[in-house]
Specification:
single chain; mainly beta; 2 helices; globular
Length: 156
């Protein structure tokens, strides 16, 4: 009986959708560009970004951003490859919890992306529908944002 329970549980866990690595044998996706004078060519699938993270579409403009997270260190890194780095004024996460004040988590620009280390933000990213987490990027042309979807897997 115990073996049957383990087999059923293992089968159910393996069937769950989640962060899956891109297969090396998968066909390469067609390149696409985003609108604008500084259009960026994408050579990644829409499941995983070029840095191995999750992709989000910032609106307006359907501009891609990628984010990774490390549950052990509580570091969240955002890659804004579709933006002109010299024109970015700010990047932050906004956490909206019903009947509470909105909390801001500013990102710091580094040579390898924009980062923030916060256990509270990591917890909020994993809470699902009870909390709304948005990535907000402001550059010379305006404000772009995307609602983040919860992910519980490690990305380094």
């Amino acid at each position: 009986m115990k073996r049957l329970f383990v087999a059923i549980t293992l089968s159910a866990v393996l069937a769950l959708p989640g962060c899956q690595p891109v297969s090396e044998t998968a066909p390469a996706p067609a390149a696409e560009t985003t609108p604008g004078a500084d259009a960026h060519v994408h050579d990644h699938s829409h499941d995983t970004g070029p840095h191995g993270g999750h992709l989000v579409d910032l609106q307006p403009g359907n501009i891609h951003a990628e984010w990774t997270h490390d549950d052990d260190t509580h570091e969240i890194k955002v890659f804004l490859d579709d933006f002109d780095a010299d024109k970015i004024q700010s990047a932050k996460f906004l956490v909206e919890i019903p009947e509470a004040d909105t909390e801001e988590f500013p990102l710091t620009a580094t040579d390898s992306g924009w980062t923030v280390t916060s256990e509270a933000l990591m917890t909020n990213l994993n809470m699902g529908e009870s909390v709304t987490v948005k990535l907000v990027v402001v550059d010379d042309s305006g404000e772009y944002s995307a609602k983040m979807e919860p992910h519980e897997h490690h990305h380094h």
